[in-house]
Amino acid sequence: MELAHNEGYVLASYAITLIAMIVIIGWVLIDSRGRQRELKRLEEAGIRRRSARNAASGGAATEKTIDA
């Protein structure tokens, strides 16, 4: 298969797409780690998620909660 005169455009498009995907995946991974650290910090402070509270205590409101 010969790309002829479109070769530069096609290769540039693939390169830009690959770079954009790498940046987005990296951004999501970094943000995910940040959210996990924040959740850990909140749980250590005694703040629990509503879903964890409902599963553990049958829905009794005994702890501080945060909507997540």
Describe this structure in words.
1% of the residues are buried. With 68 residues, the protein is mainly alpha-helical. The longest helix is centred in the middle third of the chain and has 38 residues, at 7-44. Helices cover 68% and strands 6% of the residues. Strand 1, helix 2 (50-57) and strand 2 (65-66) form a beta-alpha-beta unit. The radius of gyration is 23 Å and the shape is rod-shaped. It contains two helices and two strands. A two-stranded parallel sheet has the order 1-2. Pfam families: CcmD. Residues 48-68 are annotated as: Disordered.
**Spatial shape:** rod-shaped
Helix content: 55-70%
Indicate the structural class: mainly alpha
The strand count comes to: 2
A few lines on this structure:
With 68 residues, the chain is mainly alpha-helical.
Search tags:
single chain; 68 residues; mainly alpha; two-stranded parallel sheet; 2 helices; 2 strands; 68% helix; cytochrome c-type biogenesis; transport; membrane; cell inner membrane; Haem_export_protD_CcmD
Secondary structure topology:
Blueprint: H1 7-44, E1 48-49, H2 50-57, E2 65-66
Parallel strand pairs: 1-2
